[in-house]
């Protein structure tokens, strides 16, 4: 059993910053990829940013230069530093992890989501 628990969402003014955190716990052998997706009202869930075990990153074009994804592998935790936020960033942000629970069994896991609202 694997759990992803997010924290750090909230209400922020345009131009402000927020930092999201997500900690994975449970039966974890190794984490291949970890990061964030988001879903705005009436829209499909979309990639925000991910970071793999080798340190490679993948960002949505809309957040490049403003958001930074990082990981603390010792803590099985991923962070999303969000700067220069604008109203279009308003969404529920979901933590994501692709991981092995043992040497051969892998799966994709999701957190429960945390609301980020950018508004004046």
- The topology string of helices and strands comes to EEEEEEEEEEE
User: What summary fits the major beta sheet?
Assistant: 7 strands, mixed
Total strands? 11
Structural class: mainly beta
| CA-based gyration radius | 14 Å
Count of discrete alpha- or pi-helical segments spanning 4 or more residues: 0
Q: Assign an overall shape.
A: elongated
The poorly predicted ranges are none
What's the mean pLDDT score? 96
Strand content: over 45%
N- and C-termini, Cα separation: 40 Å
Q: Approximately how much helix is present in the residues? A: under 10%
Oligomer state of the chains in this structure:
single chain
Task: Describe this entry's structure for a reader.
With 120 residues, the chain is mainly beta. Helices cover 0% and strands 58% of the residues. It has strands spanning 2-7, 10-12, 18-26, 30-39, 46-52, 57-59, 67-72, 77-82, 91-100, 106-110, 114-118. The strands form 2 sheets. Strands 2, 4, 5, 6, 9, 10 and 11 form a 7-stranded mixed sheet that branches. A 4-stranded antiparallel sheet has the order 1-3-8-7, with no helix packed on it. The N and C termini lie far apart (40 Å).
């Amino acid at each position: 059993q694997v759990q992803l628990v997010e924290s750090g969402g909230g209400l922020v003014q345009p131009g402000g910053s927020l930092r999201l955190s997500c900690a994975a716990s449970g039966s974890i052998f190794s984490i291949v990829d970890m990061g964030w997706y988001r879903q705005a009202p009436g829209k499909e869930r979309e990639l925000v940013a991910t970071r793999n075990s080798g340190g490679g990153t993948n960002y949505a074009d809309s957040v490049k230069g403003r958001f930074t994804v990082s990981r603390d592998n010792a803590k099985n935790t991923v962070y999303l530093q969000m700067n220069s936020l604008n109203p279009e960033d308003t969404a529920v942000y979901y933590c994501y992890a692709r991981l092995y629970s043992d040497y051969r069994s892998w799966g994709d896991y999701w957190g429960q989501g945390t609301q980020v609202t950018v508004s004046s």
